[in-house]
Design the sequence.
């Protein structure tokens, strides 16, 4: 089953490369025909460009075959199973972290609700005790009423004074009774909420425990698979682990650069500029792919555009440089540009990797079309090209949305 999948991947990639070769051949041939009508010298140059493109396509095709054969020969069933299981472990761990965070949030809400109930209950008990004492005092006073108090006034002034005192007492009692009623209702409401939150806590806790068991069992399976690996497989597994760790560190670096950019910019909008010569073509599209070096199936966060070492790499839109440095492995010489916030409130950032030479520094303002670096093959690369990414709020998306103006 796995070999069938590999053969399928190989067939698809080879077909794609051949199609790109034919398309480039067709476009170049049409350009040659048009140029031939006006200029013999231009025709010769076009033939040379066509030959170069054909050679490069063939080289890429041959290299893809070599790498896929390498992958097919090196990645055993056990290694593939370990890779798949470790991906599941990452998913399980993220889900467990999310569930635990949800549990802690509910726990905090339970504590806050209980604290409110205790506070209201304390006030309720205090007022209730006062009213009880007043009722006891009235009971002990016998049949004396407010009317008796008024009728025993010594004069008009004493009568008015007693009247206002009695009125204040009645208003206070009425207000106290109303507050007690409201507090009682509030206690009942919060108690019901508390009961519901505690029930949710039990569900979330059970889910967390279940997820922990799944995670632990999956890790045990992985460890058992690792014990069955040969020496060469263990070495390859170490290389894969190092690569994945490198990718994680690279992603953290990218997110740090994006979150650390505090420039108050407004994205100008419109279609972005193609980041290098327009005669260049995509050698690896956005999306899931088999990595040409490590043989790992992973998401390709951008597009790779082929070319030659030293070719210019342009800023796709106006912005400010927020990263310009070499990182070991990964994207090698890399530049990132913050283009600002668009109309939907999304921060737009572009990334350019594998440069041979960096031409801009962090903090420099660049305009659309400015040369920011020269193309190369630094970092994790098989040949000269520029890796181009577009990120919305830190998340990589298909660049064609901006390059083609598609929604």
Sequence:
């Amino acid at each position: 089953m796995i070999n069938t999948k590999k053969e399928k991947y190989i067939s698809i990639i080879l077909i794609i490369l051949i199609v790109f070769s034919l398309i480039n051949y067709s476009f170049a041939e049409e350009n040659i025909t048009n140029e031939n009508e006006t200029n013999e010298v231009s025709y010769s140059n076009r033939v040379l460009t066509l030959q170069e493109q054909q050679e490069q396509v063939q080289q890429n095709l041959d290299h893809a075959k070599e790498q896929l054969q390498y992958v097919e020969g090196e990645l055993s069933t056990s290694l593939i199973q370990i890779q798949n299981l470790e991906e599941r472990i990452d998913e399980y761990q993220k889900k467990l972290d999310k569930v635990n965070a949800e549990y802690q949030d509910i726990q905090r809400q339970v504590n806050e609700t209980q604290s409110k109930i205790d506070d209201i209950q304390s006030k309720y008990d205090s007022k209730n005790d006062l009213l009880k004492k007043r009722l006891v005092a009235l009971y002990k006073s016998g049949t004396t009423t407010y009317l008796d108090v008024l009728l025993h006034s010594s004069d008009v002034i004493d009568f008015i004074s007693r009247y206002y005192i009695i009125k204040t007492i009645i208003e206070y009692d009425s207000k106290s009774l109303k507050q007690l009623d409201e507090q009682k209702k509030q206690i009942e409401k919060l108690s019901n909420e508390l009961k519901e939150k505690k029930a949710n806590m039990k569900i979330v806790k059970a889910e967390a425990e279940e997820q922990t068991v799944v995670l632990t069992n999956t890790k045990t399976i992985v460890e058992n698979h690792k014990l069955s690996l040969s020496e060469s497989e263990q070495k390859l597994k170490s290389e894969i682990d190092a690569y994945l760790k490198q990718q994680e560190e690279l992603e953290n670096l990218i997110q740090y650069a994006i979150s650390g950019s505090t420039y108050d910019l407004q994205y100008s909008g419109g279609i972005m500029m193609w980041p290098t010569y327009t005669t260049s073509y995509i050698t690896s599209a956005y999306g899931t792919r088999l990595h040409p070096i490590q043989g790992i199936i992973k998401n390709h966060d951008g597009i790779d555009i082929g070319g030659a070492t030293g070719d210019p790499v342009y800023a796709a839109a106006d912005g400010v440089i927020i990263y310009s440095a070499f990182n070991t492995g990964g994207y090698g010489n890399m530049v990132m540009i913050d283009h600002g916030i668009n109309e939907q409130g999304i921060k737009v950032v572009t990334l350019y990797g594998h440069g041979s030479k960096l031409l801009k520094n962090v903090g420099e303002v660049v305009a659309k079309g400015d040369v920011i670096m020269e193309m190369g093959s630094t970092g994790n690369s098989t040949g000269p090209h520029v890796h181009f990414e577009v990120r919305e709020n830190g998340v990589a998306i298909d660049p064609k949305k901006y390059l083609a103006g598609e929604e």
Residues 120 and 186 are 8 Å apart (CA to CA). Confidence is low (pLDDT under 50) at residues 1-6, 13-48, 64-74.
